[in-house]
Amino acid sequence: MVHKAIFWLLLANLLQHYLAIKAEVPAVIVFGDSSVDTGNNNELATFLKSNFEPYGRDFFGGEPTGRFSNGRLPSDFISEAFGLKPIVPAFLNPNYNIDDFSTGVCFASAGTGYDNATSDMLSVLPLWKEIEYYKEYQQQLRDYLGDEKANRILEEAMYLISMGTNDFLENYYPRTRRRLEFSIEEYQDFLIGIAEDFIVDLYKLGARKLSLGGLPPMGCLPLERTTNIMFKRQCIEEYNQVAKEFNMKLANLVDKLNQDLKGLQLVLSNPYDILLEMIQKPSSFGFDSADVACCATGYVEMGYMCDQDNPFTCADADKYVFWDAFHPTERTNGLVATHLMKKWSTKFL
Fold it and tell me: Is 327 considered catalytic here?
């Protein structure tokens, strides 16, 4: 317990060091998928939920909030580093109101993607609906604080965008519709076009500081490795290559939009390299395991398959890179957030 407490104290100090700009960021506003969904799916008619134990067992009070992890997500750590609340509340959570949302709000929905077909398959919020909820939030904020103060918050807020993995792993590869319509390169370009339109829409609505999240080494997720059983559960390199190519296209998009949109400060937050390093050299980061997850057997389980009574669930999630077969542990999320924000410090200071 002492070692764990020291780790979190050091992490908090690093986060504050790399983002010494607290006064300039009055709120953190989040869009995306399960990598940043803090509980919106709890209120949806979807099977893709995590508002039950053992999810959240290391969260404040051991509460399963709907976060797909044992604790906090990268967006929570980022909010805390900006001197704001240590969690970003979900917009659809009835326990929160506009006062809570004035310093941060999450519109993300686990299972969604850039492609509407991705969200339709899983009955979760499509990207266009996240934007519609954001517009509702804008009006609520203006009614609550007045136009001038609300508009200042909306313009100076930090906007986090994190999605794309589901488009490939839940849509393009396992189903035939998009593969009949697009080659993998064409599908990447299709998604990039949607990402561009989304960022332009946010810009028109007043957003200026945005972080666009890249894809992780998705071929190394425990679930994908398990499907590669014929090759001894090695990472699926085809998926990793697609992730790297897509991230390069995102980087080009970031450069283009920063040139085209006056006053825009858009950065690519790419978790690929740091996550791959954790997966390939887990002991260097204090982890014991990176190829299987903590929850249940660690090979295939996520969501409702992560049963709180499963005898195989690990005792200490901090020793694992992944919490379930698709999502990182809180400790991994904290390390990724610190890595990304180190790069932000050169952009926003």
Answer: yes
